[in-house]
C-alpha cells in the first residue's frame, strides 16, 4: 500500500535507536524527509546517514535533550513546516514511590510530558493552516496496565494522554490527527534496563528475568521495533485521517483488555 507520504517532512524524537529509529525507518521507506533528534550526537548522526543512504531521503540530525527548550527550537528551525511529528523519549528509571527524588520527577515530567506538549504547541497551528498534520506519541502500555516499578513513567505519560484528549476535536476537522501508540515489551535497550532492575530485586540474573517474562507472554516473544514503526507510518498516512484521539496498545496480547 502506498501511504501517500512521499515528499512529506517529519520530526522524529529519540530516533537514534529502538522504537524511535524504527519509526524513522518506516517513514523514510515511504519517502518522508526527516529531522531526527536524540541526546547523543554520534549515534544520531550515524543513524541519520544510514537512513538517508538506505531510503534516498534527506535526514538531518539535531542532537540534544528534547527537554531543553533550545534543542526544541533547533528542531523547529531545521524543520519549520513539519507534516509529521513523532514524540518519543526514553522512559524514566524504574523505582518505588518513596525513592523518587524531586530531580527524578522533574526529569520524568520534562521528557515525557512537558517536552512533547511543547512540541505539540509548536507544530499544530501550522499543520492546521496547511491542511495536513499527523502527530504520533510513542508512550507506553503502563498507561493502560501499570507496572509497580514504573510509577514515574505511568504518571508522566498519562498526563500526556490527558492533554491529547483536549486537543483532538479542535484539529481533526482540518486534517490534523493526534494518536498515541502504547508499546508493551519490545526488544530494545529500555527492556534490558528494566529487567536488569527487576532481576536485582529478585536475586536472579537479567537473562533469567527476560526468559521468564518471555515465557509468560501470549506471543512467546518480545515485539520487534519495526512493528511499532509500521504502525506509526500508517497512522501518519494519507489513509488515516479519520483516526484521531486513539491510544493503540501494541503488546502481543500481554495485557487482558475488553474489546
Structure write-up:
- With 259 residues, this protein is α/β, with parallel strands linked by helices.
- It has 2 domains: 9-186 and 225-250, Rossmann fold (3-Layer(aba) Sandwich); 188-222, no CATH class.
- The protein is 48% helix and 14% strand.
- The protein is built from 8 helices and 7 strands.
- It has helices at 18-29, 41-55, 69-78, 102-130, 151-172, 189-202, 206-216, 225-235, and strands at residues 9-12, 33-38, 59-63, 84-87, 133-138, 176-183, 247-250.
- Strands 3-2-1-4-5-6-7 form a 7-stranded parallel β-sheet, sandwiched between helices.
- Helix 1 (18-29) links the parallel strand 1 (9-12) and strand 2.
- The longest helix has 29 residues, at 102-130.
- The radius of gyration is 18 Å and the shape is globular.
- The two termini are 27 Å apart.
Amino acid at each position: 500500500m502506498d501511504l501517500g507520504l512521499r515528499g512529506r517532512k517529519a520530526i522524529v524524537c529519540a530516533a537514534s535507536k529502538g522504537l524511535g529509529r524504527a519509526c524513522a525507518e518506516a517513514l523514510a521507506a515511504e519517502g518522508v524527509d526527516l529531522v531526527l533528534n536524540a541526546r547523543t550526537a554520534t549515534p544520531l548522526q550515524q543513524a541519520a546517514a544510514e537512513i538517508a543512504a538506505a531510503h534516498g531521503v534527506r535526514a538531518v540530525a539535531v542532537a540534544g535533550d528534547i527537554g531543553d527548550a533550545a534543542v526544541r527550537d533547533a528542531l523547529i528551525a531545521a524543520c519549520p513546516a513539519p507534516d509529521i511529528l513523532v514524540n518519543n523519549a526514553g522512559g524514566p528509571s524504574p523505582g518505588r514511590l518513596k525513592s523518587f527524588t524531586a530531580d527524578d520527577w522533574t526529569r520524568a515530567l520534562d521528557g515525557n510530558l512537558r517536552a512533547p506538549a511543547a512540541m505539540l504547541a509548536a507544530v499544530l497551528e501550522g499543520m492546521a493552516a496547511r491542511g495536513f498534520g499527523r502527530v504520533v506519541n510513542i508512550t507506553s502500555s503502563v498507561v493502560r496496565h501499570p507496572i509497580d516499578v514504573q510509577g514515574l513513567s505511568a504518571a508522566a505519560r498519562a498526563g500526556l494522554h490527558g492533554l491529547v484528549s483536549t486537543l483532538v476535536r479542535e484539529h481533526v476537522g482540518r486534517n490534523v490527527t493526534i494518536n498515541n501508540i502504547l508499546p508493551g515489551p519490545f526488544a530494545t535497550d529500555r527492556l534490558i534496563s528494566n529487567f536488569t532492575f527487576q532481576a536485582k530485586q529478585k536475586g536472579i540474573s537479567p537473562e533469567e528475568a527476560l526468559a521468564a517474562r518471555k515465557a509468560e507472554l501470549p506471543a512467546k516473544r518480545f515485539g520487534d521495533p519495526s512493528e511499532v514503526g509500521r504502525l506509526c507510518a500508517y497512522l501518519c498516512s494519507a489513509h488515516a485521517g479519520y483516526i484521531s484521539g486513539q491510544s493503540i496498545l501494541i503488546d502481543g496480547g500481554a495485557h487482558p483488555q475488553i474489546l
